[in-house]
Amino acid sequence: MIVLYVPFTREKAGDLVAGTDEWLRNHLPISAESIGVLFYKEPLKLALLSEPLQVYICAHGYANSSLELGNHRNYNQALLISAEKVAQRFNYDFLLIHHRICSIHVYCCGESSKNSVIASELNENLQLFECPIVSYGGTLTVPDKDGRQWSLYGNSRVPVSLTAREQKSKSLAATSNSDRHLITQSSSLWWRDSQDARQMSFFTRQKADRKRKFEDLYHSESQLAQHRVD
After folding, report:
1. 36-94: per-residue pLDDT in tens?
2. What is the mean pLDDT of the chain?
């Protein structure tokens, strides 16, 4: 399964929402491989718990020296976060299913060697993920309607795969105490946020139900008053 991971909440994802939507539109009609989108702090979907996952970290890189990633193609309009912050958010969202992930792709625009450095920083801060980490170079496109992904260099373009640089994840000989603590901490945070989300959903539904009942009552009384006048 392909997972398009946006390391921002949906509300702060900027134009990455449109980018992932286009990716889905072009992928679904031509491929039998399942695909989904996950934004930072969103609940895990059931499909993620049972399939091998290729995770594409979808964010904007820039044609400057910055190693930060953003939520908007325009650097001056973007909310920027470091590779370390991306790794922290990735740990939060995927640590509980780390064993399902078979590859991590840092899918952002930028010069190839710079993106390789970003991938290395990400690698240094990921926990328990024993899978290849792949970075790319150039101005990257989402898959076109034929499923092809391109890297643009000036007036030329090449398949994205030709720009790929792969590095091995940090070797994990044994689960250390700090790793076990991180798993416990991540599980606790995930459970707390899930509880908060469920409570918020419950109160939202209760509020909507009260509003609907009030409107129904008001409508019934209005009709009754109208009949009396008639």
Report:
1. 999 999 998 887 888 899 999 999 999 999 999 999 999 999 999 999 999 999 999 99
2. 85
Confidence band for 186, pLDDT divided at 50, 70 and 90: low
Residue of 162, 101, 176, 156 whose CA lies nearest to 133: 101
129 CB contacts (<8 Å, ≥6 apart)?
A: 94, 98, 101, 104, 169
Burial call 68-106: b when 16+ CB within 10 Å, e when fewer: bbbbbbeeeebebbbbeebbbbbbbbbbbebebbebbbb
Q: Is the dihedral of CA 138, 141, 146, 148 positive or negative?
A: positive
**Strands (E) located in the chain:** 2-6, 35-39, 53-58, 69-70, 80-81, 101-107, 133-135, 139-140, 150-153, 156-159, 165-167
Residue 133 contacts residue 169 (beta carbons within 8 Å): yes
**What are the pLDDT digits (tens) for 109-131?**
999 999 999 999 999 999 888 89
H or E stretch covering 111: none
Dihedrals phi, psi of 17, to nearest 5 degrees: -60, -50
pLDDT given at position 174: 38
CA distance 157 to 112: 14
3-state SS string for 46-68 = HHHHCCCEEEEEECECCCCCCCC
User: Largest alpha-carbon pair distance within the chain?
Assistant: 84
Close Cβ partners of 141 (under 8 Å, ≥ 6 residues apart): 149, 150, 151, 152, 160
Alpha-carbon distance 73 to 68, whole Å?
Answer: 12
